[in-house]
Structure formats: C-alpha cells, structure tokens
Amino acid sequence: MKTVCPHCQKPVADALQFQKKHKQVAASILNKIDSQANDMRNNINARLHLVPMFVAKVTAHSGMTLAELTSEARRREFVQVRHALMWFLAENTTLALVTIAHIFNRHHTSVIHARKTIPKLLGVGDRDTVATVDMVIEHATEIWKPTKNQTT
Fold it and tell me: Taking the model in full, what pTM does it have?
C-alpha cells in the first residue's frame, strides 16, 4: 500500500487535508470559468479562426510538438493536455465534436470521454489536471481577450 498521496506526495495520514486543498484549487478554477464563461464564449465563437493558434500555443507551453499531441501516444502528459484542450473547446465553442476530434486526429468519442473525465479529475482535485486546465484557460484568456472595438 502506498504511504504517500499521489497528488501532493504527502503522507497518507494527511491525505484528506491535502485533498481538500486540491479541491479548493479546482473549485476556484471552475468558478473562474463560470464567471468569465459567457463573455469568453461569445468572444471565442466570434473568432474561431484563432483555435489552431490556441492549440499550438498550449502545446508549445507544455513542451510538446503538434505531432506528439496528435499522435497515437498514450503518455499521461500528452493525454492530459489533449483532453484539457478537447474539454475546453467542447465546452466553450460552437465547434462540433467531430471537428474538435479532427483537430487532434481522434474520433468524436474521444472528445466525449474528455468532456466526462476532466470535470471528474477537477472534482477530486487532481493536481496535474488542475495545473493543465489552469494553463489552458490562461492561454484562452490571452488569445480571446476582448479587443478595443468589442469593449466599447
């Protein structure tokens, strides 16, 4: 039996305390998404042509290449970024699941799986997922921030 928490590397005796910490971080990210959701969704859908740049920027920030992201590799770091991107695009754009899947060289059911998995992992406070989703949201906010014409 493992004696340390897989999320925070703390002793199992302290795991509940640290799990609450992870859940609080995840909850703050979800609140951040909800508070910005409508404005950001409208802005993203008005400028869908920026999706490839968004995917490329997140991929580069993760230290991966687009070929690695769209490959059949199942390494955790690849899957985590891929799923976070799929989840974000599925939840915040009007793109069809098939279109999102095509961006990542996947089947639309992979996007459905990502839409189910990411909220579950955020709900339990998975530290890696929280960090990945936070990074995806930061890049989305940076790319789709309202232009001067849209704010006036």
Answer: 0.73
